[in-house]
Amino acid sequence: MLAGKRILLIIAGGIAAYKSLDLIRRLMDRGVTVRCILTKAGAEFVTPLSVSALSGEKVYQDLFDLTDEADMGHIRLSREADLVVVAPATADLMAKMAGGHANDLASTALLATDKPVLIAPAMNVEMWGHPATQRNAATLAADGITLVGPAAGDLACGEVGQGRMVEVPDLIAAIEERLGRTIKDLPLAGKKALVTSGPTREAIDPVRYLSNHSSGKQGHAIAAALAAAGAETTLVTGPTSEPDPLGVSVVNIESAREMLAACEAALPCDIAICAAAVADWRIAEEAGSKMKKNGGSPPSLAMVENPDILATLSQASKNRPALVVGFAAETNDLIDNATKKRARKQCDWIVANDVSSGTGTFGGDENTVHLLTDEGVEDWPRSSKAAVASQLTARIAAKLAGTDA
Ligand code: PMT
Asked: Which CATH number does the domain housing residue 374 bear?
């Protein structure tokens, strides 16, 4: 369940910091992206080099590092994570958190985050038992922060008692539990979604193909938004240069027939969104070797119709998704053509967009869409493809919850 998740790990100053190196490895083995903040005191126990070598990412250390602020400020750092983990959490950092201090990168990121926070305290037994630390621990728990440990046993200082950072497997179990709880609260938790994106390529011969201008930006943004809303999301995509969205299972295909097979393999699901620009036709007979000019007249390419994935999913007698959403890419009579497409293919909703030259819909970062449902046509304002994806996801969540207008 951790695959695709992003964790911001804050390593504070304590002998238990060495366990955090193992934690990074174990999390990465599970497909987690780990970004680390190493406090000044933490760097006395583990080196930035070992942390960055293990995480494969730059280590963040200084609040006033101008390059970081330009490129990845503390706000982004604290928000671009599904969970913030502090391990080890020292008495000092806990006190800062409880008091709302923000005088270094770790405390500032902790104050700025809008994500759940889990901490693994580690300190001397007397420090842990001190009324001040106990007050801070109670304040943090009341603020919704999850405290894991400390465990009892031999302490690095030679004393025995409660103060050891919990072992890495217990920390991972707590992280899984905390993230699981977060996911359960999301609007599409427990739902399965299928999204198609990008162009298809229909081979003419081993070196040539028919395709179109789809970049995959809109479809990928939708898959990312559905996953962020808690849906277990499969993205079936043609060739694009878009990065795989986090937390999404990606199936790469080339042709329309491969896309259909991958979609059928992803069933059953609750939501299907067909944003891919699928080639309507393919070459009837793909040449087995590169076609040559040979001085004669150009070849004529006979074409046959491809299967229609949207229509197949919409009209399936078995495993039809509860909500099937198609797109209509039109260069003229947008609403009229989209209305006919919705009726012909029998999908529930159609998102209509104008792809005529000059609109920038293909490949651009923005889109102007119209949502066609049983209730009529909604004209959405021009916005980023990410905003279109979020708005569509919110509508889908409301529809499935029966709370849409
Ligand atoms: O990828 P971008 O650069 O971000 O651009 C986004 C987009 C313009 C590609 C996207 O917003 C969009 O409109 N996608 C649908 C493109 C398309 O093929 O539209 P269409 O009107 O030809 O097809 C109608 C619907 O049937 C679509 O949902 C399409 O995915 C589906 N279809 C079409 C043919 C086919 N053989 N199988 C299908 O499933």
From this structure: 3.40.50.10300
State in Å: Cα 246 to ligand 1 middle: 23
Q: Determine which residue's CA is closest to atom 13 belonging to ligand 1.
A: 329
What is residue 68's predicted lDDT score, i.e. its pLDDT? 59
Whether 263 is catalytic: no
Q: Mean pLDDT throughout 4-9?
A: 92
Q: What is the spatial distance between Cα 180 and Cα 189, in angstroms, rounded to a whole number?
A: 10
List residues bridging with 370 in a β-sheet.
352, 379
Kindly state whether residue 370 falls inside one of the protein's structural domains. yes
Least confident of 43-52, 66-75, 162-171, 223-232: 66-75
pTM of the model: 0.69
Ligand 1 pocket test: pick from 195, 310, 340, 380 the residue with the most ligand atoms within 8 Å of its Cβ.
Answer: 310
Specify the ligand 1 atom closest to the Cα of 218. 4
Q: How far apart are CA 202 and CA 208, in angstroms?
A: 9
Shared-domain flag, residues 263 and 358: yes
> Which of the listed residues 181, 207, 231 is the one where a domain comes to its end?
181
| Statement to judge: residues 139 and 216 lie in one domain | no
